[in-house]
Structures are given as C-alpha cells and as structure tokens.
Amino acid sequence: MNNGKRETSGGQRLKGTLAEGSTDLPLVTVVTAVFNGQSCLAGCLESVLAQDYPRIEHIIMDGGSTDGTLDILHRYNDRIALWKSEPDKGVYDAWNKALNLARGEWICFLGADDLYLPGAIGAYVALARKYPGAEFLSSRAKLDHSTGYSPTFGGPWLWPRFATAMTTVHVGAMHHKNMFARLGRFDSTYRIAGDYELMLRAKDTLKSAFTPLTTVVMRAGGLSDSTAGLYEAKRAKIAAGVCSAPLATVQLQRAVMRFHLRRLYLKARSLF
Q1: Residue among 133, 130, 236 nearest 179 (CA)
Q2: For residue 24, how many C-alpha atoms fall within 13 Å in the half-sphere facing its CB?
Q3: Average pLDDT of 62-79?
Q4: What does UniProt give as the signal peptide span (predicted)?
C-alpha cells in the first residue's frame, strides 16, 4: 500500500514476473540513466524492446525527474526489468548504482535520447562468441543532427589512438562484467568523460573486439557535444598517467580546433 504516494521504483523484477529465457544465451543488461527525459525516453525504451535477442534486462535509473518521465516509466512498468527514481550525483553515479543491480554477463549503457537499431544486441552477442575472452565490444554509431545530416563514426579500440582521445563509440557498447571487477566503477566526479577515464585505467591490457555495423543512433547536442568533454578528457589522461600535463594540453588544443572546424562544416552543410 502506498498511501497515495507515487511509486518510485518498479519493473518486472520487483513484481516477480521477469522471464529468464534460455539460459544457453548470455543475459545482457542495458542501463539507461535519465533526468527529465519525457521527450525522448519512450523512444529509447521501444528501441530496446524491439531487439530480437531474447535475454535482455533493461534497468532505468532516473535522477528524480520533475517532468513526465515517471509517467512513462509507470506506463512501461510491465515491459522493463527494473527502474528506480531517486536523486543522484550525475550519470556516472546512476550507472554505478545500476551496476550494483545488474545481473547480466554483458552490460551496455544507452542514453535516454539514444536508440538501438534493430538487431544490435544480437550482433554484439555474435561478436562475443567470435572473440571469446573479449571484455569490451564496440561498433559504429550514427549521429543524428537536427539538420538531417547523419554521419556514422567509430572504429576499433586501439591503445595508441585511444590514449590520445576517445576514438571508439561507447554508447550502446558491451562490457563484460569482469571488466568492472578488474577496473572498478566509474568516477562520479566526472560529468562527461567518466567512461573514457574508466577505460584509460586498463591502458594497453584491454581485450576488445569491433564490428563495423552501425548499431546505435546518437542524437546530437547536450554536454557530450561540447568542448567540456575535451577538457575532462585532458584531466582523465593526466590522472591515468598516460601522458604528461604539457602533452595533454597540446592534445586538448588540437582537439578543440578540430571540434570548432567540424561545427563550422556542419553549419555550412545545413545551408545547402
């Protein structure tokens, strides 16, 4: 009995109705952190529900939204594994909370404004079977601009390149649970580059695999589409000891220049 108070958690797991599916296939946990995401969350949820892979649990961590996000979560209550709504310290704090709840052998992080393309999870599981022992699986992503221009990007994880910049697509990528046992949790003092910082800890020991398929659509905009992430990446590289502060500063200057050149290109393209 809730005495008129709205539930701040739910899902099939709490109701005891979550179907396990075939145990011959690995369980995949998809984690979504959201705050005031009423304009996009339903699309994200539908993209996960539309996957043809049978063993997925979707965990949604809401940071205490004040818009219609809770209405959406209640509407999907019988179709998602678990959701919680409580204040957090940002996306990486929310991800860490979800990691403590995740039951999957593989774990993915999908933004509330991002979408999986059909067959994405199945393609990742097939990649995992092809490369046993891999702990990080990535793909290509489509960046959806409001101008209608939607380039794809993303390449394989290669340490010499990754040590200088986030050159692989993290959105929707799969991480084996053992990766977190080895590297620890996300540093919640970061706002944008916490995923980069975590993977830098592995240095050249990360076991990875890549598929050239495009598995996810990222919507352009927000904090990740700003120079703020580049400044956090500089901090992460220095903290991980992968380069000196002067070298990290030079790399930052080059990255900021490339960022602004890309913005100018996209603006010019939208005019034609």
Answers
A1: 133
A2: 1
A3: 97
A4: none
